[in-house]
From TrEMBL:
It is found in: Cytoplasm, Cytoskeleton, Flagellum axoneme. Residues 164-214 are annotated as: Disordered. This is Dynein regulatory complex protein 10. The lineage of its organism: Eukaryota, Viridiplantae, Chlorophyta, core chlorophytes, Chlorodendrophyceae. Keywords: Cell projection, Cilium, Coiled coil, Cytoplasm, Cytoskeleton, Flagellum. Belongs to the DRC10 family. InterPro entries: DRC10. Residues 275-328 form a coiled coil.
Length: 357
């Protein structure tokens, strides 16, 4: 089936669903009050409801179902034309019957199933079937694994139960051994208590004798301590006197130091003033020296430039003189050659003239 045919089928199913939804509001109560609904839903709908009521009554009286079906189709067409008919009929009802609602839900599920079937291609159907088979195989495999794991768990539980029994037996043996050890410990504790009592009595006797000796020694040491305190007190008095004398001497030394430092401070300030004046003069001399040095360098530079200019001019004069001398020498040589050629030409002309005569 192509997409156009599928669309047409779904369009028919949608129209059927709309018709069922509209007709679901028409129950026995609405049909009974059909003659009084002209002002509510309109005269045409009221008349159609009356016709449908008669057809429904005839259907119960073994009248042909074609009449009832035709009446239902006509009622659906009229309700479909009115945009407010469904809301008005719905307002008249508290709720639709459960059977009708179940019927509508079932038809909607069938419509969705048909839509899914019509919109699913062969490839998608095969893919879904393969996926379903794969899921079934996985579920079967998972079930087998579950059974295997349950068997393993049962085996582990039995092993764990055996281990628990062994542990319980070991605990019982340990408890028995602990009781024996506790009884032995009680016996040893009694022996230790007796030994401790005897040692305590012996220690008390030794303590009494040692305490008497230590008391006498303490009295002796207390007397020596009193004598030491008296001697230390006298020594402390002498030390305080020495300290007071030393402090007085230190104070005198500090006063002498302050006087010496005062005189030295005054001399230092005078020398510092002289030093600052000398430094100022030195800076002034350095500034003048720098200025004179700059002037001297400028003078020397000007002299060098002047001497260079003079030497350059002298060299140029020498070059000009040398060039003039060279030109004069060349000219004299040229003129001498020229005169010689003239003389030679004259002599030749005279010879030629003499020959002609």
């Amino acid at each position: 089936m192509n997409s156009l045919e599928a669309y047409r089928v779904m369009q028919v199913l949608d129209e059927a669903m709309d018709g069922l939804r509209l007709l679901s509001h028409v129950d026995s109560e609405v049909l009974e009050a059909a003659d009084t609904l002209g002002d509510v839903v309109g005269e045409d709908i009221s008349k159609s409801l009356l016709t449908h009521k008669i057809a429904a009554a005839g259907c119960r009286g073994q009248v042909s179902h074609d009449t009832f079906n035709a009446s239902s189709m006509e009622l659906w067409r009229i309700l479909k034309k009115s945009p407010t008919a469904e809301s008005k009929l719905s307002a008249m009802q508290k709720e639709r019957s459960p059977a009708m609602m179940s019927y509508l839900q079932t038809f909607e599920k069938l419509r969705q199933t048909a839509y899914k079937k019509l919109t699913t291609t062969v490839e998608e159907d095969n893919s879904n079937r393969e996926h379903f088979m794969e899921v079934c195989m996985r579920e079967k495999k998972a079930l087998e694994q579950r059974n295997t794991l349950e068997q393993q768990l049962a085996l582990q539980r039995r092993e764990r139960q055996k281990e628990m029994e062994q542990i319980t037996n070991a605990e019982d043996r340990a408890a028995s051994e602990l009781e024996d050890i506790q009884e032995e410990a009680k016996m040893r504790q009694g022996s230790l208590d007796e030994t401790s009592r005897r040692a305590k009595e012996s220690d008390l006797e030794k303590f009494s004798s040692e305490n008497g000796k230590l008391g006498k020694e303490r009295e002796k040491l207390m007397g020596e301590l009193a004598e030491l305190r008296a001697r230390n007190k006298e020594m402390e008095t002498q030390a305080r006197k020495k300290k007071s004398k030393g402090e007085q001497e230190v104070e005198a030394w500090l006063n002498d130091y302050d006087r010496d430092m005062g005189s030295k401070e005054s001399a230092y300030r005078d020398e510092l003033a002289v030093y600052e004046r000398v430094v100022a003069q030195l800076e002034e001399y350095q500034e003048k020296t720098t200025q004179l040095k700059a002037e001297r360098e400028e003078y020397e530079r000007q002299e060098r430039l002047r001497m260079i200019a003079e030497l350059t001019e002298r060299n140029r004069e020498k070059i000009r003189n040398k060039a003039a001398l060279t030109i004069q020498t060349a000219w004299k040589a040229y003129w001498a050659n020229k005169l010689a050629e003239i003389k030679k030409a004259k002599k030749k002309a005279k010879k030629d003239k003499g020959k002609k005569k």
